[in-house]
Amino acid sequence: MTRIGFGIDVGGSGVKGARVDLDTGEFIGERIKILTPKPATPDAVADTILQIVRAAEWEGPVGITIPSVVHGQRALTAANIDPTWVDTDVQELFTRHLGDREISVINDADAAGIAEVMFGDEQSRSGAVIFLTFGTGIGSAFLVNGTLFPNTEIGHLIIDGIEAEHFASSAVKEREELGYGKWAKRVTAVLREYERLFWPDLFVVGGGISRKHEKWVPRLECNTPVIPAQLRNTAGIVGAAMAVEQGLKP
Ligand code: BGC
């Protein structure tokens, strides 16, 4: 029997959801996307999620990612989302909107990390792995032999007086019109600092820009091997569905 779950990924531009085959990490049927409401307050986003779940005619458990620290199922930070998320009880919020069903809420990078390790490159399944997503910010997930240490927020690590994500996210690359060479130098500086502090066995780099990995990953100069993520933009949804199936409620 196929194990099927449902994941929702809340991003800055879209809220996306799909049924997920939990044995293969593949979507079953269409991915449904609705533009992120503006302002993206907790109630507005929760209502958007309800629309997606209804459109999919899904009545089971739902896993949800948000770009925030999720501790004790409360959202605690809001670096790139509406500030009203801070201190929101996300279990209460989503149960109120989605009704009585199993719900897990997890940080977006943590979700992508667990999905990548399960369904991506086999190398990431063992050892100490730092998974990073380069987008509006820099998200991170720490995994040891596939097990997540949640809510590592090393995109906010201050390196040479500036937060890593304000220096080397892919949004910064665009904003400052940096070529891949210049940007790879910045990413190198960030990875070297992570190396110096955490000594991982492997970096896995994801986010939209990992689609063009051949333009920048070979230019990175650090001692730890770096491989591109394989799951691309399905990772958040797949990880969200995995989280609720595993009862992961950071
Ligand atoms: C947030 C993280 C998030 C990352 C990627 C950062 O600004 O603090 O929680 O995982 O962006 O969205």
From TrEMBL:
Note the coiled coil stretches, chain numbering.
none
Gene3D superfamilies from the UniProt entry: 3.30.420.40
Looking at the UniProt entry, the stretches that span the membrane are none
Pfam families hit by this protein: ROK (PF00480)
The UniProt similarity line reads: Belongs to the ROK (NagC/XylR) family.
Full protein name: ROK family protein
Species per Swiss-Prot/TrEMBL record: Corynebacterium canis
